[in-house]
Design goal:
Elements: H1 5-11, E1 20-23, E2 30-33, H2 35-49, H3 53-66, H4 68-74
Antiparallel strand pairs: 1-2
Helix pairs in contact: 2-3, 3-4
């Protein structure tokens, strides 16, 4: 299944207006994310909760492309 995260950001996702610090619950490492990155991170975490691994993978792929450092801190 091909999930277009960029299209979801434009059409279906609620994106805030302020950057946010997000922490990795396992390591405690924190990183500042843009509002779009926060929305994708929230999407990934929600998808994990309902075991929608296609969406998790699409979100992780999006992070690797758009902010590989944040991916390594929060999701790897």
């Amino acid at each position: 299944m091909n999930i277009d995260i960029d299209n979801l950001l434009k059409t279906k996702m609620n994106v805030g207006t302020e950057p946010e610090h997000i922490s990795n619950p396992f390591t405690g490492a924190t990183i500042l994310l843009t509002p779009e990155e926060v929305a994708v991170h929230d999407l990934i975490k929600g998808a994990e909760g309902v075991r929608d691994y296609d969406t998790v993978q699409a979100g992780c792929d999006w992070f690797r492309e758009h902010n590989s450092n944040a991916y390594m801190v929060l999701l790897d």
